[in-house]
Amino acid sequence: MASEISARAEIAPRAKIGENCKIFPFAYIEGDVEIGDNCIIFPFVSILNGTRMGSGNKVHQGSVVGALPQDFNFRGEKTECIIGNNNIIRENVVINRATHAGGQTVIGNDNVLMEGAHISHDTKVGNACVFGYGTKIAGDCLIDNGVIFSSSVIENAGSRVGEGAMIQAGTTFSKDVPPYAIVKSNATYGGVNTVMCKNYGIDEKVQKHIANAYRLMFNGQISVFDALNQIKEQIPDSEEIRKVISFISGTEKGLIGKM
User: Could you give the residue ranges of the DSSP H alpha helices within 85-221?
Assistant: First the structure.
């Protein structure tokens, strides 16, 4: 089905628009842009060069996708902003493209970015994440699947968030958040995100094992290295525990609530 494109939208001739899209008046789309099928682009949206958008996305009023990176290292290189499928991008969201030549900012599938959220250059976001009102994600962050950011969260540059974690409202953090963890507003560990564990079909016994692993990690006065060894020795093996161990083993910035 042909797309419905308002004559009052400004779309560069080179832009590629898929089938069955609806583009409202006063949308602005630059030439080096690809938009997949079944997307809705509301009024006053700007989709800028380097954006590659999949199908089924909804981009609401005032949002800017593929904005130039807010990075002093940027010198006008050709970079990309990759948006997957079935994302909801609400009002006044900003997503920057990457900084260095060939780089990508990536948003996966089925994510919800609420009003005023900002995803900065070179950040990689998985699938089915929620970014609450006014949440700001700095550059070069890694965010796994199923992460929930409450409102007004600030994630500082280069940090990582593991699968199924939840960050409480008003939190500012600079260190890594391991999988299935809740982060309290003072950027400390606040327990296991049992709701998300249930959504992932994680058995209650395994949830207890995750809680015990984090008790070893966060409650003791020992190093991350020693806590990892205790987890490997004391906690029964499972896919989820292996994921926890792998994530923590890869930390470079350290963990929230842990020196």
Answer: 194-199, 204-219
Q: What is the largest CA-CA distance in the chain?
A: 66
Strands across the sheet containing 172-173: 10-11, 28-29, 46-47, 64-67, 94-96, 118-119, 136-137, 154-155, 172-173
**HSE of 214, CA atoms in CB hemisphere, 13 A:** 26
Residue 12 confidence (pLDDT): 98
**Residue 221 — pLDDT band, cuts 50, 70, 90?**
confident
Question: Sorting pLDDT into bands at 50, 70 and 90, what band is 220?
Answer: confident
Residue 71 φ/ψ, nearest 5 degrees = -140, 125
Sign of CA dihedral 231, 233, 234, 239: positive
CA angle (80, 85, 89) in 5-degree steps:
80
Instruction: Indicate the angle between helix axes 239-249 and 224-234, nearest 10 degrees.
Output: 160
pLDDT band per the 50, 70, 90 thresholds, residue 259: low
CB of 217 closer than 8 Å to CB of 258: yes
What is the rounded distance in angstroms from the CA atom of residue 185 to the CA atom of residue 152?
10
CA nearest to 119, candidates 101, 150, 96: 96
Query: What does the pLDDT read at residue 231?
Result: 97
Torsion of CA 60, 62, 65, 71, to 10 degrees: -150
